[in-house]
Structure formats: structure tokens, C-alpha cells
């Protein structure tokens, strides 16, 4: 059993209370920081810890905070991205339901690090129960003196509010989320200026994922080196919440060291393949990553290792497919998601995704031709020229399908039917 | 239209906000909760309350999945059809619901009780196949679970006060 940091207080049937969180050292980091450390020191510790953003982009959290200039204007904002909406991703929900004060403390510390007085939790409507939990626990933290005006007599003010989204995947993108918070249509905006310079209401804004923020209290209590030592790989740091789903016996969230092998996650934690099936492929980090195959079955799951095979760790949402699952149909389903969720702002995404969906649908239903494969490859390349990262992410599984499973696609075309369907 | 008390409460909240339009989704959702959907009049009302153009409200209302511009049933059932639920049988779940309720996706039963909508990943992949009923998640579901749930909701709707399908997981 590896050390449990973020999920140490997880219980099967209820959230951890403030008292339980404190019994494990909760809010000690905050007390110490307010007494002993400047915001600049906090940013440096996070940089030294190599805390990389857990929302998928893996940008160093300390570095992002450092891009808020010392003389940047006020007010400054901290936004917690709790909008996870990518197929396969559910770790933020589990984290909030397990131990909400961990997130609240992480937000207070992150706000302190950039001298922000307001933190906003942007949460998807499907997580209404999590939103209510957070509102209640924010009130409890305020009553305990950890939040609000003059926190623990330090003269520091931080307030946190919960903002409910109306529900669209693009709201998870940083600039789109800022537009959404401002009551505008959540289209992405292309930097510069970056949100850390001109973000929400034109003011410096740092946006971090739930899991990233949850790591912060532990790093500040135990130190940067401790965090780095949690990982199994040299380049990795910390633990990672892997959300495993699909054809495994025990789907769920598991906290494991960064760099743990994929085979270990599937066999030792997720209980192996469902119904004794055979592993064919997985998406390692949500729907916008490419397929890993049997060849990668023992890969070390960290940002660098995945990058070295042309893939991404993303959110660590591992979706497992067995030998009997048609990957053309699975990819068609994924593209259906992306085509439905595209904001429609730019042509490659708006036009390209339905086009890809159409071709994949033809192939899956036995109407595909040999020209469809090169056509798909060509359109995928065009989608890299979209306005934001949505379209390149969307075509990742399609490109992975064509790179690793072209034979399976060709079999559909040659047999004029899906080889995985009986009829 | 809203009662005076509801209007006062919304207006107080808006006055307290640093930037009223940050409450756009909250105001639309509040008016929707009251009326069952966001009517044309409610779009105008949202715009007036927040100092926005009606067309700005409209472009939000039609963009967001959980804002309904047409009347919906008392129980809105979102059927997750994302890849993990698909692997675990969401097509069967959706098909069974359409058969049982006698409606297609996007439709409401004639008695106004149920609306069926497809939705992209609800974040319950560890409990696939899953659905939401008025934002509460249910899963993993079998056909028998689904029948029992629909029966329970029908019975609860007949009972005084009806049923809120629940809150916490």
C-alpha cells in the first residue's frame, strides 16, 4: 500500500469533517505559512516541489503563480477549476466528497501566494451535491477562523465562493472559464494577455485544478523534497489520483505514486480485467489523449514517460478497453462527445469534428472505403490549426486509433461491417 | 412571473454582487426553477435584472446544457452516453427508458412527468452506466433498477409534496 496523502481521510459513506481533517494535520500548513512565510516563499516551495497542474496541462503551479507580477493590480483572483467534464474523469468529484477542507485550505494558501482576496470554485452542474458540501464546509472553515477577514489574526483576508456553471465542456478551458464567470458566452480567448496578467474582470487571475490545489497544504506542511520523494520516477513528483474506468473489475479512484506502472494500476488496484478479458488498449488521461496499447502495458505513468511515447498523462483518467471492444465504435463515441461539445467558435473544430464523426460512422456501419483512412489522417492534421486546444485534444484518440489500430479500421472497411458485431 | 418576495431576494443578491452579470447562470436557474423552464419572459427578466442585452442572455441560455428554453417534465432524466457508459450499456439504458416512457430523447411524457435528454459524461464513470435525475446521479444501473426508480418517481409524484430525488451521494 502506497502512502495516501490526498485520499487519506476518504471514507466509504461520508465526507471527512473539519475535526478529522485537522486531526491529520489539516490547516497546520496554513497556520505556519501565515506566521513564517511570505507569499514569494510559498510560490518558491511549490516550484521546488515540481507541482505540475493536475487538470491535464501539467504546467508548473509555482511558475504560474510567479507570472503574477509583484506590482500587479488588485483585486487578484484565484479560481478553482472543478469543471471536470471529460469522459472518464471523475477524480475531482471524489476529492471534494472525500475531504473538502483539503481543497479549502489549498485555496486559501494559493490565494495567499498571489495576494488574492477572493477564491472562486467553478463547478459543473452535475456536481450539485459537491457544490452544496463545499458551501457548507466553507461556512464551517469561516466560523473556525480559517477563512474570511483577518484569518487567524494575520491581517490576511480571503473569501471563497462557489460558482455554478450552466454546464458545457469548454468551460473547463482557462479563458473560456473566465468568460463564463463574467456571464459571457464561454468561448476561449487566445493569449496574450495571459489570465495571470489580465484575467477575470481584467485583473490577475490564477486558475488551478482541484487536485493541484489539494496538493498544496501537504507540500507546505512537509516540504518540497518530501513531495518529490513520493514519486517513483526521477522526473515525477507527488502522488496522482488515477480514475480507472471501463473494462476492469474495480473501477474507481486510486491514489498512487506518480510513475506507478499502468499494469500495476490495472491489476493490483482496479482488480484486473473484467470477466477475465484481455487488455487491448487504454486512454491514459481522459478522452483527449491517445491510445496506449499492449506494447505500453508496463509504462510508468508520469508526465515525462507518457510524453516520450507521444502521449499525455492528462488528468490520469485511465479508460480501459478489452479485446472485445470495438475501438472504431469507441472512437466514434468520443468524437460524438467532442462534436457535441465544440463551442463552434472556429471553423476547423465546428466543421471538422462532425466531418470526422461522419467518416467514422460510415466505417463503423460498413460503408467505409479505403480513401477514408487517408482522409481521416488529413482532417486530423487540419484540426491542429484551431483557435484553442479543444480540437487537437479531440483528434488525439482518432490519431491514436490510426497509429496503433489501423488494421482494425481497415478490417471494418474490408469486411463491410463491424467485425465486433454479430449481425 | 416571480412573486414580489422572489424578485426582492434576487434583486438583493444582484445589488450585493461586484459585477451583476457574474450571476447570469444563477438568475436563469432561479427563474427556471420557478417556472420549470426559461421562458421568453424570463430571458427578458434576466436581462433587465442584470443590465444585459436580451440577446446576450439568449446566447447563454441556448449554450448551456442545464438551461431549458422549452418546458421540461417534473423529472429531467439525463442519460450519460459517454464512452465508459456506452461500454457498459448506456444504449440499452436509453433504449429501455424510451420504451418504458414512450418518448424519444429530447421529449417529455404527455403527463409532464419525465423528460429524457442525452448528456455527455456526468462524471460517474466509476458507476457506469449512470444517469442523472434532477441532477442526482444513479448508477451502476440495471434494467430492473431503472424500472424500480421510474416506479418510485411516479408514485412519489402522486404523493403530497412530491419527491425530491435526493441530494447527497
From TrEMBL, chain A:
SMART domains per record: NADH_4Fe-4S
InterPro entries tied to this protein: NADH-UbQ_OxRdtase_51kDa_CS, Nuo51_FMN-bd, Nuo51_FMN-bd_sf, Nuop51_4Fe4S-bd, Nuop51_4Fe4S-bd_sf, Soluble_ligand-bd
Chain ranges of the NADH-ubiquinone oxidoreductase 51kDa subunit iron-sulphur binding domain: 328-373
Pfam families the UniProt entry points to: Complex1_51K, NADH_4Fe-4S, SLBB
Keywords: 4Fe-4S, Iron, Iron-sulfur, Metal-binding
Alphabetized GO MF terms: 4 iron, 4 sulfur cluster binding; FMN binding; metal ion binding; NADH dehydrogenase (ubiquinone) activity
Family from the record: Belongs to the complex I 51 kDa subunit family.
Protein name (database record): Respiratory-chain NADH dehydrogenase domain 51 kDa subunit
From TrEMBL, chain B:
Signal peptide: none
Assigned keywords, A-Z: Iron, Iron-sulfur, Metal-binding, Ubiquinone
InterPro entries reported in the protein's UniProt record: NuoE_dom (IPR042128), NuoE_N (IPR041921), Thioredoxin-like_sf (IPR036249)
GO function terms (MF aspect): iron-sulfur cluster binding; metal ion binding; NADH dehydrogenase activity
Source species, domain of life: Bacteria
Annotated protein name in UniProt: NADH dehydrogenase (Ubiquinone) 24 kDa subunit
Originating species: Desulfococcus multivorans DSM 2059
Taxonomic lineage of the native organism: Bacteria, Pseudomonadati, Thermodesulfobacteriota, Desulfobacteria, Desulfobacterales
Amino acid at each position: 500500500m502506497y502512502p495516501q496523502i490526498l485520499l487519506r481521510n476518504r471514507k466509504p459513506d461520508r465526507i471527512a469533517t473539519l475535526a478529522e481533517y485537522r486531526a491529520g494535520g489539516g490547516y497546520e500548513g496554513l497556520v505556519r505559512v501565515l506566521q513564517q512565510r511570505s507569499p514569494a516563499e510559498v510560490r518558491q516551495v511549490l516550484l521546488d516541489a515540481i507541482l505540475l497542474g493536475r487538470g491535464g496541462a501539467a504546467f508548473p503551479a509555482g511558475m504560474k503563480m510567479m507570472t503574477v507580477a509583484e506590482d500587479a493590480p488588485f483585486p487578484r483572483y484565484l479560481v478553482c477549476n472543478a469543471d471536470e467534464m471529460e469522459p472518464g474523469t471523475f477524480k475531482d468529484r471524489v476529492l471534494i466528497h472525500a475531504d473538502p477542507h483539503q481543497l479549502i485550505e489549498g485555496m486559501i494558501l494559493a490565494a495567499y501566494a498571489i495576494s488574492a482576496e477572493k477564491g472562486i470554485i467553478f463547478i459543473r452542474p452535475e456536481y450539485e451535491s459537491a457544490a452544496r458540501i463545499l458551501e457548507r464546509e466553507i461556512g464551517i472553515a469561516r466560523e473556525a477562523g480559517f477563512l474570511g477577514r483577518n484569518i487567524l489574526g494575520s491581517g490576511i483576508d480571503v473569501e471563497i465562493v462557489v460558482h455554478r456553471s450552466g454546464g458545457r465542456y469548454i468551460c473547463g478551458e482557462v479563458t473560456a472559464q473566465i468568460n463564463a464567470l463574467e456571464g459571457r458566452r464561454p468561448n476561449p480567448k487566445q493569449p496574450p494577455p495571459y489570465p495571470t496578467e489580465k484575467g477575470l474582470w481584467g485583473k490577475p487571475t490564477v486558475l488551478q485544478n482541484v487536485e493541484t490545489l489539494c496538493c498544496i497544504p501537504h507540500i507546505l506542511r512537509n516540504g518540497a523534497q518530501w513531495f518529490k520523494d513520493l514519486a517513483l520516477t526521477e522526473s515525477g513528483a507527488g502522488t496522482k489520483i488515477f480514475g480507472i474506468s471501463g473494462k476492469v473489475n474495480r473501477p474507481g479512484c486510486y491514489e498512487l505514486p506518480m510513475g506507478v506502472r499502468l499494469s500495476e494500476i490495472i491489476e493490483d488496484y482496479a482488480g484486473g480485467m473484467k470477466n477475465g478479458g484481455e487488455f487491448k488498449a487504454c486512454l491514459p488521461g481522459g478522452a483527449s489523449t491517445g491510445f496506449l496499447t499492449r506494447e505500453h502495458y508496463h509504462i510508468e505513468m508520469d508526465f515525462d514517460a507518457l510524453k516520450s511515447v507521444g502521449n499525455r498523462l492528462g488528468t490520469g483518467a485511465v479508460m480501459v478497453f478489452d479485446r472485445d471492444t470495438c475501438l472504431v465504435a469507441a472512437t466514434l463515441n468520443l468524437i460524438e462527445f467532442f462534436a457535441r461539445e465544440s463551442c463552434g467558435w472556429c471553423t476547423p473544430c465546428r466543421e471538422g469534428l462532425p466531418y470526422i464523426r461522419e467518416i467514422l460512422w460510415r466505417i463503423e456501419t460498413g460503408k467505409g472505403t479505403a480513401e477514408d483512412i487517408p482522409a481521416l489522417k488529413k482532417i486530423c492534421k487540419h484540426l491542429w490549426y484551431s483557435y484553442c486546444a479543444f480540437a487537437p485534444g479531440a483528434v488525439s484518440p482518432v490519431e491514436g486509433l490510426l497509429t496503433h489500430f489501423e488494421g482494425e479500421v481497415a478490417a471494418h472497411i474490408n469486411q463491410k461491417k463491424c467485425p465486433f458485431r454479430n449481425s | 412571473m416571480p412573486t414580489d418576495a422572489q424578485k426582492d431576494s434576487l434583486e438583493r443578491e444582484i445589488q450585493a454582487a461586484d459585477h451583476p452579470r457574474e450571476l447570469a447562470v444563477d438568475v436563469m436557474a432561479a427563474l427556471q426553477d420557478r417556472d420549470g423552464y426559461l421562458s421568453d419572459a424570463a430571458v427578458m427578466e434576466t436581462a433587465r435584472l442584470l443590465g444585459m442585452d436580451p440577446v446576450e442572455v439568449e446566447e447563454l441560455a441556448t449554450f448551456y446544457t442545464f438551461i431549458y428554453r422549452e418546458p421540461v417534465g417534473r423529472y429531467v432524466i439525463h442519460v450519460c452516453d459517454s464512452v465508459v457508459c456506452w461500454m457498459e450499456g448506456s444504449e440499452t439504458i436509453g433504449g429501455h427508458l424510451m420504451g418504458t416512457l414512450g418518448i424519444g430523447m429530447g421529449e417529455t411524457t404527455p403527463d409532464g412527468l419525465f423528460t429524457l435528454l442525452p448528456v455527455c459524461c456526468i462524471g460517474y464513470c466509476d458507476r457506469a452506466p449512470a444517469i442523472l435525475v434532477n441532477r442526482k446521479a444513479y448508477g451502476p444501473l440495471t434494467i430492473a433498477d431503472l424500472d424500480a426508480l421510474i416506479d418510485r418517481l411516479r408514485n412519489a409524484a402522486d404523493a403530497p409534496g412530491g419527491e425530491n430525488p435526493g441530494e447527497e451521494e
